[in-house]
Write a structure and sequence with these properties.
Blueprint: H1 2-10, H2 25-32, E1 39-44, H3 47-59, H4 74-77, E2 88-93, H5 100-110
Parallel strand pairs: 1-2
């Protein structure tokens, strides 16, 4: 994560793609410290579906060694159970097919 924070300081128009923990004081302070208009796309598919998708990806061949967990325990899932909410939040329910063009247009409309 340190690389993301270092690069973001020098890139005024950047997309940060990561799973941010909404109750992490450290991550919230790093995000809030950016000279940026924050537009958060919060994707949610529910706890059970998230756990299933994580488990299936971990079992797939070609799973990267940097991700050693085979399952995500409930207490870890709870760390990501809501949007960070430091700016505009666009919620996407990924249990259903998504319209990428529509999401992109909503993002564009959200810029100041």
């Amino acid at each position: 994560m340190e690389l993301i924070w270092a690069l973001a300081r020098y890139a005024p128009q950047v997309v940060l793609e990561a799973n941010f923990r909404p109750r992490s004081a450290y991550e919230r302070s790093k995000l809030a410290g950016l000279d940026a208009s924050i537009i958060e796309v919060y994707c949610d598919c529910g706890e059970m579906e998230t756990a299933r998708r994580f488990r299936d990806r971990a079992a797939a061949s070609g799973h990267h060694a940097a991700h050693p967990l085979k399952e995500m325990p409930p207490e870890m899932l709870a760390e990501y159970d809501q949007a960070v909410g430091l700016g505009i939040v666009i919620k996407v329910d990924t249990r259903v097919p998504t319209n990428i063009e529509s999401i992109a247009q909503e993002i564009l409309r959200s810029f100041p």
